[in-house]
Design brief:
The structure holds three protein chains of three kinds. Helix content of chain A is 74%, strand content 3%. Chain A is mainly alpha-helical. Among the domains of chain C are: 595-672; 676-704. Chain C has 27 helices and two strands. In chain C, strand 1 (68-76) and strand 2 form a beta hairpin. The chains are: A mainly alpha, B mainly alpha, C mainly alpha. Chains A and C meet through helix 7, helix 13, helix 15, helix 17 and helix 18 of A and strand 1, helix 5, helix 6 and helix 26 of C.
């Protein structure tokens, strides 16, 4: 099984090389599709083989990589990565299907996309800090080209902004890693070598170094914020979010799907994997600040979304707002909030990918995304309108659809955080009320958009639009059904994460 | 001693000075290469006159006759060198003329710094 | 016994969902009329299930009638220990038993009605799909076993309401109305979430509703928590009051109470069958139902808040109903006013009568809306009553039904007997409750008096505006001859449900009074109350007995006078009233009421415009400040780079080049002494020679 896991990481890379030497565009597409289907199958096999009762890291494999600084190639899967892996592989098939009509440099597109795919899988599956960092960076470069070559009118600006902004975050992470390199050899059971194993970095001996009042307590506080900034940029959270609307608006539809669906989740995943478990005492110290950031993102993102006239930008800002729930849920340090934040990531992976796809379907035909120039699309394509309704209401957090579970759990978890003790009661209640008020704003901008885009009579220039085709209906059906299934049976996710989160949360819980 | 008819060294030096002056003047004023060559010949001749005059007056008060030819020998060398020099110079001028269709030295500034 | 009831409930709940899904998925393939018949049949099946369940329940010996619960863990809460979860499921207790046949019954009748009303609509199938989906959601609320399930279906009801109001989304009116309805509901829901969150924290996630021996029920847990904090319901902590009011905010949104009431009249943009079920009978009553369900956690402070909101809505809406000329809007404001009665009833502790009124009101108001739908149908979608008049002769069945329901809503009775229409039984119980609450609140001075005065005054106003609408529509001379000529009685599919509902409007009061309130063996609602209301709160409830006769006397005769006045005044059309509204003072009130007390304008300025303004400001801040800072950082770095580039080019490299340039300059200078002119060389040669000679001579002279 560890072999299968490692094979899964690098299958897309092999596919990428094959795409480069493919004889035709069609062949490249087919290779990409086959590779993503095979990878999906692999991830499903892994999910089936995973022992949910035992939890923890499974299918682990390790090999010395850079001996001088004790860096290993170490991979493995646990409850934190498993749902995200399945989400990634499942979305990937849909993304390849969604990029079926890309005709500009198809081979390069597919190759870059598959390269990116390896990066994403690597981020979720690596258990060594350095390896994680490498994959974290590897995922940047293909994205830069995918936006910069296949993007819209301002693609160069957007691509460079995306690249530099996220790279700036990576630098923060690198600084922390340098610190770890110097500090971890002091841990009790390190053997005098730096520790890069992420599981060991969460162990008691390392925690002792970073504990409140410990030798490296000041470093731990700085490191908490530095890693947090690194991942908040990726998430993205206000005020580090402005690369996102630009990147989304310029990126081609399938790339927007994968960007919103998976790449943003790397930020949340890394917070759960690194920031919180490595520096739990810092998290307990700063939780109110971080929670405030989350609430600001919820409200501010929703307000910004409301004011947009570009449809895709509206959806992009909705991502900022939805990711605010992830920040908030993590920050409040309650199990309900933690579970809710994680579910929100999965749910947002489904709904945001679907929303961007829905926008893409219209954009491909209309060649503009001005909300005010659209209208009456529901009457033009009733089936498409129906799926859009489901998709946008899922984004709005309607019960029975996946967006609801994460939102409500984060909200409940926030109120639960009142129990963390005196001194914060008023501010936590305020945060809870504001976050609850966020649902009104969400309903406001989604319904307003829905009214302007979908309701009313179709515009005359729709006449020459070709109908929504079977491939597109298939993609939205899969995503829509996923949104329904996850909304009705959230247990799917919690079943996978439960035991792992028990261990993880034990070290985060407020004593 | 009659300054006009008693020929002393000064008279020779005055002649040679005049010759040299004429030579310099010729060189400075002529643009024609041949003219300059003539000026150079005048200079050389002035030098030759000086050598002969000095030779005459150097050995004038001595009884020895065996070594009174130093200036003569120099002068003969000067004449020979002048001839050789004229030949070389004329050859250069000929080539110059072939290239530039002129012997105006003002034009011959290709090698200036 | 328990299993069969739970199974029946489950079937009744899920059957509409299945038929709705079939209709949505097979929109094109179903025969044109198939959807209507399919969903109606399924709905009738659900009705049968709930009636069987009710009779199974009634057939059980009284001492064995426990609330039945089905709990299915939905969202695990490992934070509270293993096995904890938020549950979905079914709660079958007396209240549910009473609500289920009402909801399924009305839904079946509305489905039948819609077959006639929606005949020939482009999206006929979809309409039935939505309608069934709505019924599913509504049943979910009724059957909810936990706060989370209540909220889930609460939102789904909001969604289906949105879809149904916006069913004709080609037109601008429905578009705006459905959006407004949903957003306003969401404002209430935000409050609900806050209350939910507070309770969730305080009760450790125990969110189950039923008050049974089940120790996980939120009410039992709450009692323990309060005891541990040294509080009680009579002496409650602030958070409990806030939580209760927060949850009630959900009810304010859904039941369109002041100040979130403005969406309901606009919701009349939807097809009339929708108005009859969603916006009069069931969904808007869900808020009252919610309040009833969470009743045991409401503190005296929350009671005061709820009853005040109810009173304000009750009075305000009744006055607006008096001046509206659109037949559906009159009924909409009447619904608001009646909902105000119910909420007031909840607030003042008349739990039983509020829920009783919910049920009776559902029947007669649904019937009134259906009648108005038939009239509108006959009048070619003319909704203004000023164009009606004398339609009674053309539409006798509809007129009869409308008349019966007008009597029902007016609370008609033969004084000092129990021969009365349904509205009498339920409404006067609420009035009595309010009067006794006024006594309780006597220390509050005039406020206490208002609880006494308000409901009684409105008990006169209600028959008046209903008589007005009846007279304007069916009596007098036709005011629009063309309209009158083309008017016709509604088809069978439409008048049949009206008649059924009218019969229920007569019967439900008496039946309910006998079974639910007085029931010799086990008054169902009273039992339900006893089961979930702790002893101390029920005290006020018992004092109703004293005020009952009081209320009967005051409002019992009132309906005759007020209804008569309403009818007589408006039989000749608007002639009399138009003179009255010209009286100074009255005209101001009239304009005020006609403009809905300017709430819409107010909200438009203060919430919608402000909201958009804030959004635009935020977007501008984002674009120019936040992104501006990012771009500024970028351009600053670029400027620094340019600067250092210049430094490098001009200073560092300039030094290197400077050395070379100096050498070159020197060369250039010296070069001018070598012009290539042979004569100049000669001149220099000789002048230098002369110079040297001169120097030698001078030095020779000097050294001498």
């Amino acid at each position: 099984m560890p072999t299968l896991l490692n094979l899964m990481i690098f299958t897309p890379l092999i596919g990428a090389l094959l795409c480069l030497v493919a004889p035709s565009k069609q062949a490249a597409k087919s290779i990409a599709l086959v590779v993503s289907v095979v990878t999906l199958a692999m991830s499903l096999v892994l999910a089936a083989q995973y022992d949910y009762h035992a939890g923890g890291v499974q299918f682990e494999s390790a090999m010395m990589w850079i001996k001088g600084i004790n860096v290993e190639y170490r991979t493995g899967m646990d409850g934190l990565s498993l749902p995200l892996i399945v989400l990634t592989t499942a979305l990937s098939v849909l993304v390849v299907a969604a990029s079926w009509n890309i005709e500009k440099m198809t081979k390069a597109f597919m190759a870059l996309y598959l390269f990116l795919y390896t990066g994403m899988l690597g981020v979720f599956l690596s258990l060594d800090m350095v390896l994680f960092y490498v994959f974290f960076e590897v995922s940047l470069l293909p994205m830069y080209f995918l936006i910069g070559i296949w993007g819209g009118p301002r693609k160069e600006y957007a691509a460079i902004k995306f690249f530099l902004y996220t790279l700036a975050g990576s630098i923060c992470l690198l600084v922390v890693m340098l610190g770890l390199y110097h500090i971890t050899p002091n841990a009790a059971d390190s053997g005098g070598k730096p520790i890069w194993n992420m599981m060991t970095l969460q162990s008691d001996s390392v925690h002792a170094l970073f504990a409140k009042g410990g030798t490296y307590w000041v470093f731990a506080q700085w490191a908490f914020w530095l890693t947090l900034v690194a991942f908040l940029i990726k998430l993205p959270a206000v005020p580090f979010h402005t690369w996102l609307p630009d990147a989304h608006v310029e990126a081609p539809t399938p790339i927007s799907m994968i960007l919103a669906g998976v790449l943003l989740k790397m930020g949340g995943y890394a917070m759960m994997r690194i920031t919180w478990p490595f520096f739990p005492d810092s998290a307990r110290l700063f939780w109110v600040c971080v929670a405030t950031l989350g609430v600001i993102a919820i409200i501010y993102g929703a307000l910004c979304a409301m004011a947009q006239s570009d449809w895709k930008k509206l959806v992009a800002y909705s991502s900022v707002s939805h990711m605010g729930y992830v920040t908030l849920g993590l920050a409040v340090l309650t199990r309900t909030g933690f579970d809710g934040a994680y579910f929100q990531m999965i749910a947002h992976g489904i709904t945001s990918a679907m929303m961007f796809f829905m926008v893409g379907v219209v954009y491909e035909r209309a060649h503009h995304r001005e909300i005010d120039r659209l209208g009456g699309i529901w009457l033009k394509w009733p089936g498409y309108g129906g799926w859009s309704l489901l998709c946008f209401f899922a984004g709005m957090g309607l019960p029975g659809l996946c967006g609801f579970i994460g939102e409500i759990m984060v909200l409940l978890g926030t109120f639960e955080a009142v129990g963390h003790g005196a001194g914060h009661t008023t501010i936590v209640y305020t945060l809870g009320v504001l976050a609850a008020f966020g649902v009104v704003l969400t309903a406001g901008y989604i319904l307003w958009m829905f009214q302007r885009v979908y309701m009313g009579l179709p515009k005359p220039d729709y006449d020459h639009y070709e109908p929504v085709n079977t491939r597109e209906y298939a993609i939205m059906t899969v995503l829509g059904v996923l949104a329904l299934v996850f909304g009705i049976v959230p247990m799917i996710v919690f079943h996978a994460t439960g035991v792992t989160f028990n261990h993880l949360f034990a070290m985060l819980a407020v004593q | 001693m009659n300054p006009v008819f008693d020929i002393s060294l000064h008279h020779f030096l005055i002649v040679s000075f005049a010759l040299a002056g004429a030579g310099v003047a010729t060189i400075l004023t002529k643009r024609n290469a041949i003219g300059i060559l003539i000026g150079v010949e005048l200079l050389l001749n002035a030098a030759g006159v000086n050598f002969i005059a000095f030779n005459k007056f150097l050995w004038h008060n001595t009884t020895s006759t065996s070594t009174g030819l130093d200036g003569m020998v120099f002068t003969i060398f000067i004449i020979v060198v002048a001839a050789a020099e004229a030949a070389v110079a004329l050859a250069i001028f000929l080539n110059f003329y072939n290239n530039f269709s002129t012997v105006d030295v003002e034009k011959a500034d290709e090698l200036k710094g | 016994m328990p299993h069969s009831i739970i199974t029946l409930m489950l079937i009744a709940l899920l059957a509409p969902l299945v038929s709705s899904t079939v209709c949505i998925l097979a929109t094109r393939r179903l025969l044109f009329k198939g959807a209507g018949y399919l969903t109606t049949a399924v709905m009738a099946g659900a009705l049968a299930c709930s009636i069987i369940a009710l009779f199974t329940w009634l057939g059980t010996p009284v001492d064995q009638r426990h609330a039945l619960v089905l709990n299915i863990p939905w969202i695990p809460l490992p934070g509270f220990g293993p096995g904890h979860a938020l549950y979905l499921g079914i709660l079958a207790d007396p209240l549910t038993m009473a609500m289920m046949p009402m909801v399924t019954g009305i839904s079946t009748l509305v489905h039948i009605y819609s077959i006639g009303y929606m005949h020939g609509d482009k999206r006929y199938n979809l309409f039935f799909a939505y309608l069934s989906l709505f019924t599913f959601s509504m049943l979910g609320i009724v059957l909810a076993n936990s706060v989370i399930m209540l909220f889930v279906f609460w939102e789904l009801v909001g969604l289906t309401s949105y879809l149904l109001i916006g069913f004709w989304f080609e037109k601008r009116g429905p578009q705006l109305a459905c959006k407004k309805a949903f957003v306003m509901n969401r404002i209430g829901d935000a409050g609900f979430l806050v209350g939910f969150g507070i309770l969730f924290y305080k009760l450790g996630g125990a969110m189950l509703l039923p008050a049974t021996a089940d120790s996980g029920s939120m009410f039992n847990v709450l009692a323990n928590v309060l005891a541990a904090e040294g509080h009680s319901l009579a002496n409650p902590p602030l958070w409990l009051t806030v939580a209760g009011i927060g949850l009630f905010f959900g009810a304010i949104g859904k039941s369109a109470q002041f100040p979130l009431h403005t969406w309901l009249p606009d919701a009349m943009e939807g097809p009339t069958p929708v108005s009859s079920i969603v916006h009069s009978a069931t969904m808007v009553a869900a808020g009252v139902y919610l309040t009833g369900r969470i009743y045991p956690i409401l503190t005296p402070g929350a009671h005061l808040f709820i009853s005040t909101i109810g009173l304000v809505t009750l009075v305000m809406a009744a006055f607006m109903a008096m001046v509206m000329t659109d037949i559906k809007r009159v009924l909409a404001y009447s619904t608001l006013s009646q909902l105000g009665y119910m909420v007031l009833g909840m607030g003042v502790g008349a739990w039983t009568f509020a829920l009783f009124h919910l049920i009776t009101h559902a029947f007669f108001k649904c019937c009134l809306f259906q009648c108005s739908g038939s009239v509108i149908h006959a009048a070619h979608h003319q909704q203004d009553m000023r164009h009606y008049g004398g339609l009674g002769k053309k539409m006798p069945i509809t007129m009869a039904c409308y008349a019966i329901c007008t009597l029902a809503i007016a609370g008609a009775s033969i004084p000092f007997t129990t021969i009365a229409m349904s509205g009498f039984f339920s409404k006067d119980g609420i009035i009595a409750g309010s009067i006794s609450y006024g006594d309780v609140m006597a220390h509050a001075g005039y406020l206490g008096k208002l609880f006494w005065l308000g409901p009684i005054v409105i008990a006169y106003v209600t028959p008046f505006y209903m008589g007005r609408s009846f007279a304007l529509t069916f009596l007098g001379k036709p005011r629009d001859q063309h309209l009158h000529d083309h008017a016709h009685e509604a088809p069978l599919a439409m008048w049949f449900p009206q008649v059924c509902l009218a019969i229920m409007a007569i019967a439900s009061g008496y039946l309910g009074w006998k079974t639910l309130i007085l029931g010799s063996e086990a008054p169902m609602l009273a039992q339900g109350v006893a089961a979930i209301i702790p002893g101390e709160v029920i005290e006020a409830h018992h004092s109703h007995g004293m005020h009952m006769t009081h209320a009967l006397l005051l409002s019992g005769f009132g309906w005759i006078i007020a209804l008569g006045a309403g009818i007589l005044m408006y039989v000749p059309g608007m002639a009399i009233s138009s003179r009255i509204v010209k009286i100074p003072g009255v005209n101001l009130l009239y304009t005020w009421a006609l403009n809905k007390f300017y709430f819409d304008a107010l909200y438009d300025v203060f919430t919608v415009s402000m909201g958009k303004f804030v959004a635009v400001v935020c977007a501008a801040v984002d674009k120019y400040l936040v992104d501006g800072l990012v771009n500024l950082a970028g351009s600053t770095v670029r400027e620094i780079a340019m600067l250092s580039g210049k430094v490098d080019k001009h200073i560092v490299d300039g030094g290197v080049n400077g050395v070379a340039a100096m050498a070159q300059g020197a060369g250039d200078m010296l070069r001018s002494t070598q012009p290539g002119k042979i004569r100049i060389y000669v001149l220099m040669f000789f002048s230098s020679a002369a110079l040297v000679t001169l120097l030698v001579v001078i030095s020779a002279i000097a050294l001498r």
